[in-house]
């Protein structure tokens, strides 16, 4: 089929041609937006799941939903070793700019921008050198004595309260979206939870919507025990059969192309319903199929190409981020996580990894911690680790050492 018209989109954060199987999350979020805008108590949403299940594209879709209701929105992607102040400044600047045209009092908007600037300038603390100093692109003089204490928790509460008051004036809200939320520092997570807690008690219309790896709820509750009551966790998983068929079928139909039932059977078997894999197999199959309807044979012919691209783009690129010691650790994990009959890699006790490598558990902690920090593995339960990347164990087991 014409590769130019190929609708599928494998890739990090790539908007899929059809966002399948996420109706429930979208409905829940609509209710959250409506309730928060009316000052009703409501928990915010945190999306968790493995790599490539579609957290980022869902987060972006939720953001569009908020913008559709005239909310002010901003988004950040957390990174390890980066403090929250600067990205939050940028995101809230964006949110306020979205609200400003609907606000009747430009002076009040400028006042809040002044508070935002004061908050932002604190990002330069400890940066003595003039040329390293960051100049936030906010065209008003900084306010004094608000959101500029240097204590991130106090400053976030003050900034959020003022920003939310603008949204109250226009009858909507502000949503701050945080991707890769597990990468926030403990101090920042704790400050963020405290600020959200405070804001929800005030009934102020500002919410934080997060997305991250499966251990994100543990990261949040380690910072603040009440985080479970603050956020509603939505586990984003692989697509069920019906949703996977829609993800493939709807975009094809728009191009006048159909699938045989056996082709869809085989595609689901190969992709396991993981959204990234659905897109990758869909794309390769489209390019190889000579005509509509697409058959199971077309899928068979195309599969090696899809697997080759996944090996490079999805698995290989991540494996390359690991040092030799970390790779050894993951190979041992892969051997131990082999669970025939189960499509998913099982979690592995760290003690077993130590035994299989003939090492003392403590000597492996640096490799384990570094892999967690790189987002390649996570510890869902104490004393165990699992891959964040679906089918990663299977991929490693096929790689020559
Ligand atoms: N609901 C869906 N239906 C069809 N395809 C989807 C769906 N969600 C995501 N995808 C596709 O899956 C791929 C991965 O999506 P995305 O980058 O959002 O995943 P992620 O969970 O953020 O991964 P990571 O943890 O690596 O950041 C993209 O190619 C996207 O188009
Ligand atoms: Mg993502």
UniProtKB/TrEMBL annotation:
InterPro entries: AAA_16, Cyt_c-like_dom, P-loop_NTPase. The keyword Transcription does not apply. Coiled coil: none annotated. SUPFAM superfamilies: P-loop containing nucleoside triphosphate hydrolases. The keyword Flavoprotein does not apply. Residues 168-334 form the Cytochrome c domain. Gene3D superfamilies: P-loop containing nucleotide triphosphate hydrolases. Residues 1-20 are annotated as: Disordered. It holds the Pfam family AAA_16. GO terms for molecular function: electron transfer activity; heme binding; metal ion binding. Keywords: Heme, Iron, Metal-binding. This is AAA ATPase domain-containing protein. It comes from Actinoplanes philippinensis.
